[in-house]
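Sequence design from tokenized structure. All designs in this work follow the same two-part layout: the structure record, then the generated sequence. An example of the structure record is given first.
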């Protein structure tokens, strides 16, 4: 009988390890790179890569949201990015926020923002790059990203899974401990 308990415990442990390793790999989405500065959605604008990520992943109206941008050239951080942010409601085309140009010493840009309505928005990062190309100073490079603001009661399957996974792993661990104490 002791051998069957050990087999059950080892199987549960192996299953828990498999789930903990496999689930994050399965949840990766195309276009969402996990490199040093590239977070979330990555867009190519001229010879620059611009990544965008909002936290929380599913923002709600009236709640604080952090907008993260990273501007890279040839996958390397750059300095002195002159950038502005424009936020527009997609349905009406109405500009709800226009943040003026500001010189950022590093290419990682973080902006706190609170969306006022549960609707779809376009978040535009406008960049004037002093890279020797006069067009990049005269006409800004634009990276546009879509943000859906939804009520707080909504939860994505990914968030649900990520919340349930630690609980499940703890439950499996508790079962293993109970079987070990039984012998």
């Amino acid at each position: 009988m002791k051998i069957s308990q050990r087999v059950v415990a080892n199987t549960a442990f192996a299953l828990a390890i498999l789930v903990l390793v496999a689930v994050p790999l399965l949840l990766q989405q195309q276009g969402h790179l996990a490199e040093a500065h590239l977070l979330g959605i990555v867009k190519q604008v001229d010879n620059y890569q611009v990544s965008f990520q909002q936290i929380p992943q599913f923002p709600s109206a009236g709640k604080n949201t952090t907008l993260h941008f990273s501007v890279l050239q040839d996958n390397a951080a750059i300095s002195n990015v002159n950038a502005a942010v424009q936020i527009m409601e997609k349905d009406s085309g109405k500009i709800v926020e226009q943040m003026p140009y500001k010189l950022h010493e590093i290419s990682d840009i973080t902006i706190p923002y609170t969306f006022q309505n549960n609707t779809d928005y376009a978040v535009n990062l406008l960049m004037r790059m002093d890279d020797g190309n006069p067009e990049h100073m005269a006409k800004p490079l634009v990276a546009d990203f879509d943000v859906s603001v939804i009520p707080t009661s909504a939860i994505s399957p990914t968030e649900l899974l990520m919340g349930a996974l630690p609980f499940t792993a703890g439950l499996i661990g508790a079962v293993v401990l109970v079987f070990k104490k039984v012998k």
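The chain has two domains: 2-27+159-182, 41-152. We note this feature because it recurs in several other targets discussed in the main text.
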